[in-house]
Each structure stands twice: as structure tokens, then as C-alpha cells.
């Protein structure tokens, strides 16, 4: 006999736990199932984001940034010290404590909202029956009036660079190195490669990033990508573009392992020898083993669950959200989809505006954007005006010793409506939300230009960039 719920959520990552908590707030009886275990072998809620993604990587990015600043920024402030050392074990331990705090926080939130957690692997069967294989080997059966699949995503493994958890790792392994690798190669100059490559570079590793595409960060605005690449190379990140990796060979044992990585670029076949190899070539939907025969739920050619614009699978009462469906693999996109589906099930309006989902890459300088890039506007034939402003002319940024980067505002040439905001520089992960808000409220560059911004703040760069759209920025020649 299966236990009956109003909603059964498969997956307690960002999309799943948001769906579960919002549905419980709306008075529904909710179960949420997750198979993941933490480093201590105990069930850990929160998904990739909390366990091995956004949160732990930010912890390491922050630790490594403090260390880097000691050697690169402190001197300019007149601060000196002797023998800065990094204790990798202590740094990773701090990261683990933060992860535990947040994964435990989801369990507390479930309790407070009366969401029933189940710990094990869930498979969806016809008629919204969900069978859960629990960690002790027992099985429970749940039936939902509605089922929300939020199974997330897994790292893509390359056939010629299989993860061994030692020499060849994915993002999870690269969060737990026990010492700074002398030489680290990264396959893929995407978000994970740049963030984790930066962490270990700042701590002293020689980092080589091999990227197959000829253009750096092709998803970002070209000017932003160019400025970021220049800064990363200045920091010593060896980023090789148009470098397609085809082979890796591991030699030696344990800590003495080395990896010979072979790639082809415009000059022909090349190879480098490193101590650790991080493979960061994207993620795939975690749909394996999720669906029993006869559910009617379809997968697309990339293994993602097919859904319509409301995250409905087309099968009565079955929905899917987050990384396991189309759209960007971003935790906050999953948050919004989870909430929207819970509200739709409750008969409320639920909607996610894909046009205003912000992107952030937490490097130094940070990269962030919302809306269309200049190249996309050109391709779409949209007439636009651009205004940009450098942080080098912003008093606060210079006082902080962080003058790199700029803000660019793109607005429709006739209506002045903001179509995109692109930022590279210190703290832009927070600043980008000014662009998100403006776009959500269908604001114009002139609106932004006429809104009072506190001085001295980093946000003045947005104010001046908005004024520059109309060639009236005060602090630069227009
Ligand atoms: P990605 O898609 O961002 O980048 C992968 C890169 O690997 C691409 O540029 C691709 O051209 C390159 N590549 C693929 N095969 C290659 C080969 N054989 N040789 C050389 N280069 C090769 O993927 P990711 O960095 O692994 O991130 C995965 C997902 O997680 C992304 O969707 C990302 O948005 C998400 N994520 C987001 C954040 C954030 O928002 N800050 C952080 C981490 C991850």
C-alpha cells in the first residue's frame, strides 16, 4: 500500500526544495525524496548546489581570494606580513562546515514546513507511483496527486579522461584536493573551469585551461569576455583557446600520479604533463534510472525531461523543473521553476521569465549579465544604443584597489527600454540585479540614469553607464 501525498517531489536540490516548501506553505501534504549522502555518509539535502556546487565553491573562492590578496593587494595598502601560508585541510574543513550548516538547514526547513523527507533513490512508475529504494535497502511506495521531478544534473565524463577521484576529477574532486597541486590542467573554460581554476591558481598552482572553442566565453558579451580574459591572463591563468583535448594518460600511483593531456590546436598536436586534471566540460540531466517503463514522460535527445513552458511533462499531474529540463543549469532558475510549479498546482499564476535570469561567474573580477548581448541584438536586428563606464573611474572601486572592468547598458534605440546589462568587475554579482529589476519593470536607460545612486559606491558605474547610453555620462568624455 503506498502512502498518498498531494505532491511528491523527486530531488531536494534548489528546484526540488523550493517546490516542496512552497507547496507545503500553500497547505499541501508534501513528500520530498533525495538519494544524496554528505561527506560523512549521512543523507544531505540541498542538491549539487549546496553539497558540491555553488556554496562550497564560493567558500573556496573566498578563502583563496583572501590568500591571493595578501600577496597582490595588501602591499599597496601598506600592509606587510611574514610567511603567508595556506593550510588546505583547514580551508576545506571550513568549506565542509558551511556545507553542513546549509544542508542541515534544508532539513530544518522541511521540518518547520511539515515536508516529509525520504532518503533514497526514487523511480517514477505509471499513475504517479513513486518507489523509493532507501539507503538501508528497504523500499517505500508513495503516490502523488502531482509529482514534481527535480532530479538535477551530473558532470559529463569524457571517454578518454575517466574520473578516478585522484588524478582526474570533476568539480566534486576539485573541491577536496588535500594539497595545492603543483600543476593543474582544466578541460573547459566554462563556468566551473574558470571558478575552480581560479581557486587553485590563487593558492599557487600552475593552472592551464584548455578550451576547445576559439572564442573565450562565447555565451557572454564579447567585450566583457575580452576584458575578463585579459585580467585572467594577467593573474597567470594559462588559458589556451581552440585547444581540443582528445587523450589523457595517467602514470604513477597515489599522490605521485601524473597525467599527460594531449590536445590539438592551430599549431597541431600538443601535450602537457600535470599532477591533476579537472574535467569541466558541462553537465547532463540526471535522468538515468528515474523513469520506469510506461510513465509516458519523454526525454529529449540530450536526456532532459521534455516539458512545456509551464514545466508540465504532458502526463497528467507530472511536472519537471531545474537542471533536468531545458534552459540554463542555474540554481536560481531552478528556484523559480520550483515555486512556479507549486503555485500552478495550487491554482495560482506561476511563471518564470527566462529573459531576466541573471548569470554570474564568480571569478576575480566577477562577470555578470542579464538580457541580450550586443552580438545577439545585432543577430536579432534590434536597433540599440550602448553606454559603458569603467570601474577605473569609480572612486569606490579605486579606493578598494579593484579598478578592473566596466558596466555596459544596452537599450533599444527608439524606446530606450533596457535590453541587457553586462558587467565585469568587483562585486558585480550583486550589481547585476539592478539590471534585472530594471528589465522586469520594463524600465529605460533614462530611468536608471535619473535614479539617485549613493556616492561613493560601485553602483555608480551603472548610473554613469546608463547616462552614457545618451552620451551624457558626467565622469567620462562621451
Ligand atoms: P560549461 O558548459 O559552462 O563549459 C564547458 C566548456 O568545455 C565549454 O566551453 C566547451 O567548449 C568546453 N569543452 C568541451 N569539450 C572539450 C574538450 N574535449 N576539450 C576542450 N574543451 C572542451 O560547463 P561547466 O563549466 O562544466 O558547467 C556546467 C554547468 O553548471 C553549466 O551549465 C553552468 O552554467 C553551471 N554552473 C554555473 C555556475 C554559476 O552560475 N556560477 C557555477 C558552476 C556551474
Automatic annotation (TrEMBL):
Summarize where NAD(+) binds, as residue positions.
Answer: 188-195, 211, 282
Cofactor binding comment, as recorded: Binds 1 FAD per subunit.
Please write the reaction equations for the catalytic activity of this protein. N(6)-[(R)-dihydrolipoyl]-L-lysyl-[protein] + NAD(+) = N(6)-[(R)-lipoyl]-L-lysyl-[protein] + NADH + H(+)
What EC number is given for this enzyme? 1.8.1.4
Q: List the disulfide bonds.
A: 49-54
| Active site (record annotation) | 455 (proton acceptor)
Q: Which InterPro entries does this UniProt record tie to the protein?
A: Class-I_Pyr_Nuc-Dis_Oxidored, FAD/NAD-bd_sf, FAD/NAD-binding_dom, FAD/NAD-linked_Rdtase_dimer_sf, Lipoamide_DH, Pyr_nuc-diS_OxRdtase, Pyr_nucl-diS_OxRdtase_dimer, Pyr_OxRdtase_I_AS
Subcellular localization(s) per the UniProt record: Cytoplasm
Per the database record, which ranges form the FAD/NAD(P)-binding domain?
Answer: 5-338
Q: Which residues form the Pyridine nucleotide-disulphide oxidoreductase dimerisation domain?
A: 357-465
The answer, when asked if Flavoprotein is one of the entry's keywords, is yes
Would you tell me the Gene Ontology cellular component terms? cytoplasm
Q: Which cofactor does it need?
A: FAD
Q: Which UniProt keywords apply?
A: Cytoplasm, Disulfide bond, FAD, Flavoprotein, NAD, Nucleotide-binding, Oxidoreductase, Redox-active center
- Does Flavoprotein show up as a keyword for this record? yes
Single GO biological process annotation from the record = 2-oxoglutarate metabolic process
Query: Which residues, if any, are the signal sequence?
Result: none
Q: Where do the annotations place FAD binding?
A: 58, 323, 329-332
- What protein family is recorded? Belongs to the class-I pyridine nucleotide-disulfide oxidoreductase family.
PANTHER family xref list = DIHYDROLIPOYL DEHYDROGENASE (PTHR22912:SF224), DISULFIDE OXIDOREDUCTASE (PTHR22912)
Q: What else is known?
A: The active site is a redox-active disulfide bond.
Protein name as annotated: Dihydrolipoyl dehydrogenase
Which gene is transcribed and translated to give this protein? lpdA
Amino acid at each position: 500500500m503506498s502512502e498518498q501525498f498531494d505532491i511528491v517531489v523527486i530531488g531536494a536540490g534548489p528546484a526540488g526544495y523550493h517546490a516542496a516548501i512552497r507547496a507545503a506553505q500553500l497547505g499541501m501534504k508534501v513528500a520530498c525524496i533525495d538519494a544524496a549522502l554528505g561527506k560523512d555518509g549521512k543523507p544531505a539535502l540541498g542538491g549539487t548546489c549546496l553539497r558540491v556546487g555553488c556554496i562550497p565553491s564560493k567558500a573556496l573562492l573566498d578563502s583563496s581570494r583572501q590568500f591571493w590578496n595578501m600577496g597582490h593587494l595588501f602591499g599597496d595598502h601598506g600592509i606587510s606580513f611574514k610567511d603567508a601560508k595556506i593550510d588546505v585541510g583547514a580551508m576545506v574543513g571550513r568549506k565542509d562546515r558551511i556545507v553542513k550548516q546549509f544542508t542541515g538547514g534544508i532539513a530544518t526547513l522541511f521540518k518547520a514546513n511539515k515536508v516529509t523527507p525520504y532518503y533514497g533513490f526514487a523511480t517514477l512508475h505509471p499513475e504517479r507511483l513513486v518507489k523509493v529504494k532507501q539507503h538501508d535497502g528497504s523500499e517505500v511506495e508513495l503516490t502523488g496527486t502531482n509529482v514534481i521531478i527535480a532530479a538535477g544534473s551530473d558532470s559529463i565524463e569524457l571517454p578518454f579522461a575517466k574520473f578516478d577521484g585522484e588524478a582526474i576529477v570533476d568539480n566534486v574532486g576539485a573541491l577536496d584536493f588535500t594539497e595545492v597541486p603543483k600543476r593543474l590542467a582544466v578541460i573547459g573554460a566554462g563556468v566551473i573551469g574558470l571558478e575552480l581554476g581560479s581557486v587553485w591558481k590563487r593558492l599557487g598552482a600552475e593552472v592551464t585551461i584548455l578550451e576547445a572553442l576559439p572564442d573565450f566565453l562565447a555565451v557572454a558579451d564579447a567585450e566583457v569576455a575580452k576584458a575578463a580574459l585579459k585580467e585572467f591572463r594577467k593573474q597567470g591563468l594559462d588559458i589556451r583557446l581552440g585547444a581540443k583535448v582528445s587523450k589523457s594518460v595517467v602514470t604513477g600511483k597515489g599522490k605521485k600520479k601524473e597525467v599527460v593531456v594531449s590536445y590539438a590546436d592551430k599549431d597541431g598536436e600538443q601535450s602537457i604533463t600535470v599532477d591533476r586534471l579537472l574535467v569541466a566540460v558541462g553537465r547532463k540531466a540526471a535522468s538515468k534510472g528515474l523513469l520506469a517503463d510506461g510513465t509516458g514522460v519523454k526525454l529529449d535527445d540530450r536526456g532532459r525531461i521534455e516539458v512545456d513552458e509551464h514545466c508540465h511533462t504532458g502526463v497528467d499531474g507530472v511536472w519537471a523543473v531545474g537542471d533536468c529540463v531545458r534552459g540554463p543549469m542555474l540554481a536560481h532558475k531552478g528556484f523559480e521553476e520550483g515555486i512556479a510549479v507549486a503555485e500552478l498546482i495550487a491554482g495560482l499564476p506561476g511563471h518564470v521569465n527566462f529573459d531576466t535570469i541573471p548569470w554570474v561567474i564568480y571569478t576575480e573580477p566577477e562577470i555578470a549579465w542579464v538580457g541580450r548581448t550586443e552580438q545577439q541584438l545585432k543577430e536579432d536586428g534590434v536597433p540599440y544604443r550602448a553606454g559603458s563606464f569603467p570601474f577605473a573611474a569609480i572612486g569606490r572601486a579605486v579606493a578598494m584597489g579593484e579598478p578592473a572592468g566596466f558596466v555596459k547598458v544596452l537599450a533599444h534605440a527608439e524606446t530606450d527600454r533596457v535590453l541587457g546589462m553586462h558587467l565585469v568587475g568587483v562585486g558585480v554579482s550583486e550589481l547585476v540585479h539592478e539590471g534585472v529589476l530594471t528589465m522586469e519593470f520594463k524600465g529605460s536607460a533614462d530611468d536608471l540614469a535619473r535614479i539617485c545612486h549613493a556616492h561613493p559606491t560601485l553602483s555608480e558605474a551603472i548610473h554613469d553607464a546608463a547616462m552614457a547610453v545618451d552620451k551624457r555620462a558626467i565622469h567620462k568624455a562621451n
